[in-house]
Design a protein that fits this description.
Elements (H helix, E strand, L loop, with lengths): L2 H12 L10 H4 L5 E4 L2 E12 L7 E8 L2 E9 L3 E9 L12 E4 L3 E17 L8 E8 L5 E7 L2 E9 L6 E3 L4
Antiparallel strand pairs: 1-2, 1-11, 2-3, 2-7, 3-4, 4-5, 5-10, 6-7, 7-8, 8-9, 9-10
Length: 177
């Protein structure tokens, strides 16, 4: 063995192995990835990341497309992850100050406001919001483990109705980039 090969192997052995950072697919899923939720496969067509300025993100909204049908997977980060598979609901309100604390949806379900907050949003792909602006967010709970989410940004409302989905039942498949 030549001296240069020995020097080269010594130098290679002193280089530290690159650190493998643990990944969290609930936060790091990207547009183009595939999700399997409740035995249905969806392509992520958009992602909204909600945060308070200066703090880590605490809510993620994945716009899921299956054919022409679009759903939303909301992931709320707390001590644990709460995941909600939601369907978009049509309706309108004129002013965010008119948002009621009790919602009656179609006479079938009554929802009660759990909390509301204002966040900044960062978006990727096709979503309902502009990046970098504030979004007002209301979360309601109803009977039979049903939830209602209302979001407002600069005159536009987005309403969603959904139910909790265990995070362990969501399968993530990285898309090709």
């Amino acid at each position: 063995m030549s001296i240069w090969k020995r020097v080269g192997s010594i130098i290679k052995s002193n280089n530290p192995e690159p650190e493998v950072k643990p990944t969290n697919p609930l936060e790091e899923t990207m547009v183009g990835d595939i999700l399997n939720v409740d035995l249905e496969e969806y392509v992520v067509s958009g992602k909204a990341i909600y945060f308070d300025r200066g703090f880590a993100p605490h809510r993620f909204a994945y716009y899921l497309q299956n054919g022409k049908h679009i759903s939303c997977l909301l992931v709320e980060k707390g001590r644990t992850y709460e995941c909600f598979l939601c369907e978009f609901v049509e309706g309108s309100l004129d002013d965010p100050n008119d948002v009621p604390s009790v919602l009656d949806v179609g006479g079938e379900v009554t929802y009660h406001m759990e909390h509301n907050r204002t966040d900044t949003v960062r978006v990727e792909g096709n979503t309902d919001f502009r990046a970098g602006d504030e979004v007002m967010f209301w979360r309601y709970f109803g009977s039979e483990n049903r939830y209602f989410f209302l979001q407002w940004q600069d005159g536009k409302y987005v309403a969603m109705e959904g139910s909790p989905t265990p995070a362990g039942q969501i399968k993530f498949i990285k898309g090709t980039r």
